[in-house]
């Protein structure tokens, strides 16, 4: 469940940062994000901050994937060419399918662009 929470938080973290700046709470938020990068389980505290700032975090939609374009049934041959990128910290369930001429998204927690998984994974 922690991975799904982090995926949902990654999507709303830019809004949380903007809100934290307005509330003079940027240091508090960045400390929690830093602890998350270090492996600490502070996801619940981040969810509480988001709720206090009226920012909806949709954890349920992150139960299987995020930012992934579906592969249509019957298009099996195309699957071989789909490049799926993942969280650079491998800490969450967010995935992104490579799209022509579009750079992979940046992880809001790690500050790095999504990376391709190992070829055999």
Tell me what you see in this structure:
The structure is a single chain. The chain has helices at residues 2-22, 26-37, 43-52, 76-79, and strands spanning 84-86, 95-97. It has 121 residues and is mostly helical. A two-stranded antiparallel sheet has the order 1-2. Helix 1 runs antiparallel to helix 2 (26-37) and helix 2 runs antiparallel to helix 3 (43-52). The longest helix is centred in the first third of the chain and has 21 residues, at 2-22. The chain is elongated. 23% of the residues are buried.
At a glance:
By secondary structure, the protein is mainly alpha-helical. It is built from four helices and two strands; from the N terminus they run H-H-H-H-E-E. Strand 1 and strand 2 (95-97) form a beta hairpin.
Helices and strands, with pairings:
Elements: H1 2-22, H2 26-37, H3 43-52, H4 76-79, E1 84-86, E2 95-97
Antiparallel strand pairs: 1-2
Helix pairs in contact: 1-2, 1-3, 2-3
Major sheet summary line:
2 strands, antiparallel
Q: Point out poorly predicted stretches.
A: none
Shape: elongated
Q: Termini, distance in Å?
A: 21 Å
